[in-house]
Amino acid sequence: MRHLKLLLRAVLSLAMSAVFIWLSLRHTDLRAVGRAMASADATRIGAYVAMLLIIHLVRTVRWGLLLKPLGRVSFKRLNSASAVGFMMLLLLPFRLGEFARPLLIARPPPGGRGATLRRSGAFASIVVERIVDGLAIGLLGIVALRMLGAGASGRYADFARHASVLVALGFFALCVAVLAAFFLRGRALQLTSALLRPFSPRLAQRACSTLDGFISSLHLGSGWKALAFFALTAVYWTVNGFGLAFLAPAFGFHLAPLMVATILAVQVVGVMVPAGPGMIGTMQFFTQAGLSLFLPDAFTRGSPVAAHAAGYANAVWMLNFGVQVGLGLVFMLLGHVSLRGILQPAAEPPSEADVAAPASP
User: Fold this and answer.
1) Please, how many CA atoms are within 13 Å of residue 328, restricted to the half-sphere of its CB?
2) Looking at 73-82, 186-195, 219-228, which range is the least confident one?
3) Integer Cα distance of 179 and 157 in angstroms
4) How many CA atoms lie within 13 A of 229 on its CB side?
5) What is the C-alpha separation between 320 and 261, in angstroms, rounded?
6) For burial by CB atoms within 10 Å, which of 8, 108, 127, 326 has the most?
7) Which phi and psi (to 5°) does residue 22 adopt?
8) pLDDT over 60 (residue 339)
9) Of 12, 32, 15, 27, nearest in space to 288 by CA
10) Quick check: 260 and 120 in contact, CB under 8 A?
């Protein structure tokens, strides 16, 4: 039964990707798309690859700030888990790879050098990342589309406006829930215990321990670390946007900052859609959909603009996929990270909830 469910999920994810690939390429001549990609400026492509490496570095350092309250983590260990974790995010369908980074970083360090982190705390760091990034991209899309006004048109303009608002509201609600748990920690643990203890005291104690570890990792330790985290978030999205703008002339068009902000927002919202491995299909289609707000012929059958827009969207996907998977493979081949035993239960350091909770009968 379990294998049947996995097979069904794999088929559904591939079907979802196939639909978006079809939507992206149905109005284009595939040979024209190939020519657009083959004739793209190699210098700009090389520079974009360099920017992707910078993005990986900024993202890794930012994640390290969230992990500091959990214990000491060397940069080598952090960078390895980040590279392989994001590779798994791309390779596994339905974004199941989101679990790879916290599972990798929470494993005991080789040779006992460094702290053993709680899995619950490591998972919390990913939740914080996603909340901040979701709020940032939602607000970025709202502001950019409002400032552009009628400058952003086309069949997907209304979708972009509504999606930006919904994403911002969704992540804001999640942010409120997390902040409530953080500032009302004791009550959150009591409520969890009260709800689960009638069913299973052992389950209640374990859930409280996990929640306590989650809440513990939400504290950055100082205002300077929090400021550094938000500054790195700004750098992260700025470099992402600059990379998209820098690559565009290689395919024959130029993007103003507000256009880039809008395309980036549409692209990020799009890749949230569960699809096949590598976000294939969703990234190409939603990148092209973002372009169509400013290039009316981006989806017009037989249009040279459509071929170049599809070439740009596919180049963005290929380069992102290639760089991240390449980084992950390098760290695995060097022996810095192994996926063996990643799903095995790990002993967690005791939390405040473990110490305070009464023993189960």
Assistant:
1) 22
2) 219-228
3) 33
4) 22
5) 18
6) 127
7) -65, -45
8) yes
9) 27
10) no
